[in-house]
Amino acid sequence: MPQANVELHQASIEAWNRRDLEAFLALADPEVEIAPLNVEMERMPYRGRDGVRRFWNDYLAVFPDFRVEVIEIRELGAITVASVRLRGHGTESDASFVQPTWQVAAWHDEKCVWWRSFRTELEAVKAARRRGGQRSG
Fold this sequence. Notes:
A hairpin with a 6-residue loop joins β4 and β5. This protein has one domain: Roll (Nuclear Transport Factor 2, Chain: A), CATH 3.10.450.50. It is built from four helices and six strands, in the order ααββαββββα. It is globular. The protein has helices spanning 2-17, 21-26, 48-62, 121-132, and strands at 28-35, 46-47, 67-76, 79-89, 96-108, 111-118. The chain has 137 residues and is an alpha+beta fold.
């Protein structure tokens, strides 16, 4: 099952990159909680499928070509930890950005129930261990 979680994490990133909201939502638990890296954004964390839609619209309104490049995804039981590179351009300035980021996701019954982004691997692994000690769903 854990390898399946790695594949689910990969599938969620692929759905994002091709802008397939329905496929992205299909991988989300109805009560999913998402907290992207930019903690200054309002309505955080995003909760439930309506929250996922807000997250989707909020990010693409600011970064219309936002993409996630996977470097590595590994599993820690029901938790996946991904090293990724975020790329895009801002709509206001057209300035490009490239940002290494770490994602942590908790999976239950092939659905993402919790997802967070972190600036460092250490923060991500600590969060994964904390989350792994909790029930994942």
